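To assess whether ligand presence alters the predicted conformation, the chain was also submitted together with (2R)-2,3-dihydroxypropanoic acid. Input:
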Amino acid sequence: MMSKPYVLITRKLPEDVIAPLSAIAEVEMWPHEDAAMPRDVLAEKAKRAAAILPMVSDPIDEGVLSACSALKVVANMGVGYDNIDVSAAARRGIVVCNTPDVLTDTTADLTFALLLATARRLVEAAEFLKEGQWKSWSPFLLAGADVHHKTMGIVGMGNIGQAVAKRAKGFEMNVLYYNRSRRPEAEKKLGAVYRPFFDLLAESDFVVCLTPLTPETRHLFNREAFRQMKSSAIFINAARGAVVDEQALYEALVHGEIAAAGLDVFEKEPVDPTHPLISLPNVVALPHIGSATHETRRAMMTLARDNIIAVLEGRPPLTPVNRPS
Ligand code: DGY
């Protein structure tokens, strides 16, 4: 009898989600839900895996991939896949999959919530009340910035960018966007207007970063970019931390070059709570929870699982991001 293929899952996921995979494979799951599998353990176990289901925080680099002799598919639990060396995988005939679509609206909701929380100082206000500092209703007490009827500039007009634009329209905002390629559909359906990157920065009240992390977008938001923004601008990042030069952002906030920032992602995660950005009163910081709802996280796991089942059963993957040679 042929032995079942070995599948490595780098975090504890619900048994009922994994059951259909366990029926056809020997599945090993890291037994912890809230602690990452150490890199060396992952690399060692991956050597005999036919499939890996990593989290977006697990680096699957050339070193890991080159030691795998049986690996057919890496099915990331996330739409972003900058943690995986996709071309090294393709050279070895390994399919890489992500989880698009299922998280689009959820991540757009969080992005918009972060924008509102930052503009209207919700976190600061809630802390103020809890700390017993509320003594009187005052004309400018915790006054923030209006969101409605302002200009939003979206950098990265993929599915999530377009879903954020849709929400912005509900707030009667003027929507600008910058993307590597023009999005005629979004222009027609959402009334979003294309602008070159630096023009968008100069015109926007809210600059919303939703672009994937690639070698081209690493530190796209640098000193020059922040200098281009209005001094009243609010910067929101719900994409990847490394798209931003954090030192440049810190200086822009401290020197009043921009007004505030809402950050769901950081260059190094989990972010150190002593990170200078976290200490600023005009920063709302979240622990990378863009897609974190029960429904969506289950949908992401399910899609990653189904990508693996498809490949192990010899069918085309559902949502591949590369074409192995
Ligand atoms: C993704 O899917 O890339 C998100 O960042 C994970 O929540």
